[in-house]
Amino acid sequence: xxxxxxxxxxxxxxxxxxxxxxxxxxxxxxxxxxxxxxxxxxxxxxxxxxxxxxxxxxxxxxxxxxxxxxxxxxxxxxxxxxxxxxxxxxxxxxxxxxxxxxxxxxxxxxxxxxxxxxxxxxxxxxxxxxxxxxxxxxxxxxxxxxxxxxxxxxxxxxxxxxxxxxxxxxxxxxxxxxxxxxxxxxxxxxxxxxxxxxxxxxxxxxxxxxxxxxxxxxxxxxxxxxxxxxxxxxxxxxxxxxxxxxxxxxxxxxxxxxx
Length: 259
Ligand SMILES: Cc1cc2nc3c(=O)[nH]c(=O)nc-3n(C[C@H](O)[C@H](O)[C@H](O)COP(=O)(O)O)c2cc1C
Prior knowledge:
Layout: H1 5-11, H2 26-37, E1 46-51, E2 63-70, H3 72-80, H4 89-113, E3 117-121, H5 128-135, E4 141-150, H6 178-194, H7 197-201, H8 221-231, H9 236-245
Antiparallel strand pairs: 1-2, 2-4, 3-4
Helix pairs in contact: 2-4
This protein binds flavin mononucleotide.
């Protein structure tokens, strides 16, 4: 394994959920945003909204960046050239999500390299009406993710990851057998249990239709993620409506001009 300052920042990443009140200097903020913008892009279809009111942020972090996919401004650029967008919303969104995600991750790496802590907030897009109102979002601007940042007031350990041979396949996807799956689950679950992660964070997602049989002694990462993916957001129409609130149509367009 090669080490250099960049690799060490990447390998030292862990989400921070407790922050000091120390203000983040403007120069640091500017550097974070510049580093975000320097990410590779397909179309630069994203915008970043910064809020500095710690009292309103998760974990009372001093900074909240909301990284949005933004087709509004690119449509303005195209209009100035006499074009209108014909690429469908789902394809354009796919590219824009890539752009926004790489910018977000560059910001996280830049911040962590300067001693700040960070934590992504993945629920931000779901509060569509509140977001539009609070951030004055025009149509076709959708928050993708929030990132809180500030100086850490905790020093948690680095969290486990899946084994490399469960993640990297050379050339072709490898057939996974039960042993692979068990080994991967064990690496994650034992790792999280050894850190007392869910007990320390007092998090155990409720079961919607079954009786609880877990305690913090055996509730771990694969159970946690299974409860999310096995219970949450089952209704595709609700998701269509969510995208529509932001001005995106992710289903087949009704053609009104055809007989
Ligand atoms: C897209 C995304 C959304 C996330 N949303 C949340 C969140 O809402 N709340 C939270 O506390 N952590 C959130 N996280 C942080 C993850 O829980 C964390 O990255 C993961 O557990 C791995 O831990 P680590 O970042 O400490 O390595 C999110 C991370 C990502 C990438």
